[in-house]
Amino acid sequence: MIVVTGATGFVGRYLIDRLVRDGFDVLATGRTKAGEEYYEKGGIPFSQVDIAKAETLEKLPKQGVDAVVHLAALLSIDVAQWTPEQYVMTNALGTYNILEYCRKSSVRKVVYAMTHSDVNRATEQVITEETPRQFGSTRDATGHGHTLPYIVAKIAGQHFIEGCVQDGTIEQGITFRFPGLRGYGSRDSRYTTVFHQFIVKAMKSQSIEIWGDHKTVRDVLYVKDAVSAIVCALGSDGVKGLYNIGSGKGLTIEDEARAIIKAFSPPDKPSQLVYRPDIEEVRKRSYVFDISKAHRDLAWKPSYTYYEAMLDYKQEMERGYFDLER
User: Fold this and answer.
1) What is the pLDDT of residues 128-183, one digit of tens each?
2) Cα separation of 12 and 7, whole Å?
3) Of 7, 23, 66, 254, whose CB has the highest number of CB atoms within 10 Å?
4) Residue 281 and residue 136: Cα distance in Å, rounded?
5) Does residue 187 fall inside a structural domain?
């Protein structure tokens, strides 16, 4: 059995779908009851657990679990909602609680999801697993909430994973560092990010503005490629440590816009790009992941080009992929 924490989240929903299709025996878990009806109507067992409360993990199976995929976390985009203490209790202590569950239940493999926040101020454009940790905090639109507690708590969770490998609590602790993920149903759609604004405008054949000199490049990955990396990790033997999981390619904002227009605009009336060099580009730092380690050790590489990802995104949107409220 594979236990998935954070199964009601963005990556979790796609992962559960993939694992079930591949014939895995899975247990979906989440902090609220939001996923119970969704999963159980599909014949997938669901358990409501709050990883910040160790006693709730007593609900989980005591034997027969091959691995835990640990996706549960309070997100940085919700800085106005959560306190620093809540970030630490869930993202750091919650990870420790999961590892204690693994120790008591003889679970020997944990796959842990990490963002690129630990290197969000790296001076290097190409990010490897050996890139020194360099990070900085940002504040929300109100100027109050800030992301430092989130970043530090996620890093602490990674250290707990590494420490438990070293002391023999688990055999395989695999941390995946993801870049920005694209896919239908992502939480940031509620915050009307530039990416989602582009899609809406493309569907309406509205013009799309490209600001600044648009030379900044970013590594972005389609959610189904992130899921395929997790599946590769579940099938691996002996691998452990940190792995970059990205596209390995840098996209400018113009590259993204052109692929979105091609995928979403009516063919007879595509959106037009309007260049605004007089407005400063929001993205100022370029980064691209070196994914050679994941390719070597896990035999993984992304399957979707960005344009193919946008076509698949459109298909998921049209079939009404269920967006769980949490």
Assistant:
1) 999 999 998 876 555 555 889 999 999 999 999 999 999 999 999 999 999 999 99
2) 4
3) 7
4) 19
5) no
Give the residue numbers spanning the domain of 117: 2-182+219-246+285-304
Number of domain units in the chain: 1
CB 8 within 8 A of CB 32: yes
- CATH code of residue 67: 3.40.50.720
Q: Is residue 197 part of a domain?
A: no
Q: Look at residues 38, 115, 27 and name the one whose alpha carbon lies nearest to residue 68.
A: 27
Count of beta carbons in the 10 Å neighbourhood of residue 200: 13
* pLDDT, tens digit (0-9, with 9 covering 90-100), for 245-287: 999 999 999 999 999 999 999 999 999 999 999 999 988 899 9
Give the separation between CA 155 and CA 163, rounded to whole angstroms: 12
The type of residue at 25 is: D
Q: Is 274 a domain residue?
A: no
Work out the number of other CB atoms within 10 angstroms of the CB of residue 41: 8
What angle, rounded to 10 degrees, do the helices at 253-264 and 194-203 form? 30
Whether the CB-CB separation of 75 and 57 falls below 8 Å is answered with no
262 in any annotated domain = no
Residue 275: closest CA among 206, 201, 208, 203: 208
CA distance 157 to 150: 11
